Amino acid sequence: MEVKKAFITSLPVLAGYLVLGMGFGIMMRAAGYGILWVLAMSLTCFSGTLQYVGVELLAGPAGIIQTAITSLVVNARYMFYGISMIEKYKNTGKYKPYLIFALTDETYTLLSEETPEGCDENRYRFLVSFFNHCYWIAGGAIGNLIGRVLPFSSRGVEFSMTAIFVASFTEQWLSGKNRFSAAVGLITTLACLLIFGADWFLIPAMLIITLILSFFRKREVSDK
Fold first, then answer.
1. In this structure, are residues 14 and 133 in contact, taking their beta carbons and an 8 Å threshold?
2. What is the pTM assigned to this prediction?
């Protein structure tokens, strides 16, 4: 049952990840990296945005310090995701390492919803995460092979990640009952953008969001 339910739940991500993964694969091919590089990055660094940025880091090439700082900035938003998923991932046992590793924006959106009735929660969450991961890997491999056979300009492909972030946020805002977290994220990010500028706003925004949500979570727990 969990396999069927998880697959059905993950279907909205299938089309998006295949397309986005193909964009990543095409960019890697344009930069001179073949399918083995695509598979290696997708298996060990499952983060669409960072993988897109990673193409430029590989082509640079970038130093270790620059790569580490860039990775922190790009993936800082996962601090926010992690806080809100603490209770759901608390007793996931053997699935926990992979669930943490595979928590992407789209997977977070799906797993924020209630688990279908009759399903083992931990197994269901693992399978949703696993299916999404497989879609991304397949998309990257297909894109890299297409880029090898057909001439394709990768210019502008990276904007697709921005588009899917906007779509995910809009979906959560429209379907969510409690919009407090989304409101905190939106207001804090805009404020930091105005104060720190486009080049430096991300880390302060993520730190402030994390502190605010941690504070209110502690109050919520203490009230219970």
1. no
2. 0.72
